[in-house]
Amino acid sequence: MVPGMQHCGGGPGATSFGLGDAARTDAGHEVASLVQWVENGQAPDRPIATKYRDGDETKGVEMTRPLCAYPKFAKYSGSGDPNAAAWFACKSEN
Fold it and tell me: Does residue 72 lie in a domain region?
């Protein structure tokens, strides 16, 4: 499940994974990390999802977030850019 994603897509969260858009294609981002898992057996630790301004990639990136395996969730570190995935860690509720 993706926080902020509606039933099949869209919503207020970071819901773009490189499918049909110009999102990054390195192994740590979006769908490329899933390709690495299927083709090379390298499971993603925390793939990165992107939210574009007004849902339009031509308007630029509004935010990025790591997608954490349940039961973990993305937790802001308390410093740095709150719109950048780099400042979030996958944490458990404890």
Answer: yes
Per-residue pLDDT of the chain (94 residues; tens, 9 = 90+): 777 787 877 788 888 876 544 445 454 555 667 777 788 888 777 788 889 999 888 899 999 998 888 888 999 999 999 999 999 999 987 6
**Whether the Cβ atoms of residue 25 and residue 32 lie closer than 8 Å to each other:** yes
Look at the chain and report how many structural domains it folds into. Answer: 1
Look up the pTM and report it: 0.72
Residue 40 lies in a domain: yes
DSSP, collapsed to helix, strand or coil, labels residue 11 as: coil
Contact in structure between 86 and 24 (CB atoms under 8 Å): no
Domain containing residue 63: 30-91
